[in-house]
């Protein structure tokens, strides 16, 4: 797109949102398997699934619950990934411009811009991360009904029953993870862009 015209903020946000959502939907089976295995030990002993590994987890999900179970909770996962794209990728260049206007240049600019973008996306996406984990690891009740049915129903149920702050439990390590990989990602992006300009656009 940049070949034909300058990429404005709206175009950057749109492309980042779309690409994030598509990537998340494709990777749902891996995400569900990861959530199941990560949460299994936190369940009461009688309720644990005792997965032996990633392949055992995936094959048992298919055998016991069917392939559609891989996309249970996909809506909050896709929404979260779309928001990650918008708030992380879409805001990074804007923060670069802001910090540059304050005289912050070079690697410090990249670090500050990416950490700020990481903070914004952590705050915005944490409720969706919590909803995704709840939906992916839930079990039906005695009547066979799942407690969480949709993204916003999950968020509102948790907020009303346990308090809105529950949706942000574990925010500090979540931000450290998000901010850390955002910094590393954008340093890599800046280096790839530098090499591209040097070799292709010279």
Question: How would you describe this structure in keywords?
Answer:
202 residues; mainly alpha; 7 helices; 71% helix
Secondary structure: elements and pairs:
Elements: H1 9-26, H2 28-40, H3 54-65, H4 74-101, H5 106-137, H6 151-162, H7 171-199
Helix pairs in contact: 1-4, 2-3, 4-5, 5-6, 5-7
Describe this structure in words.
- The protein contains seven helices and no strands.
- The chain has 202 residues and is an all-alpha fold.
- Helix 1 packs antiparallel against helix 4.
- It is elongated, with a radius of gyration of 20 Å.
- The two termini are 19 Å apart.
Write a brief caption for the model.
With 202 residues, this protein is mainly α.
Write down the overall mean pLDDT. 86
Number of helices: 7
Amino-to-carboxy terminus distance? 19 Å
Instruction: Summarize the biggest pleated sheet.
Output: none
> Got a strand count?
0
Portion in strands = under 5%
Write the H/E string, N to C: HHHHHHH
* Structural class assignment: mainly alpha
Helix content: over 70%
Specify the overall morphology: elongated
Our Rg estimate from Cα atoms comes to 20 Å
What are the low-pLDDT stretches, counting only 5+ consecutive residues below 50? none
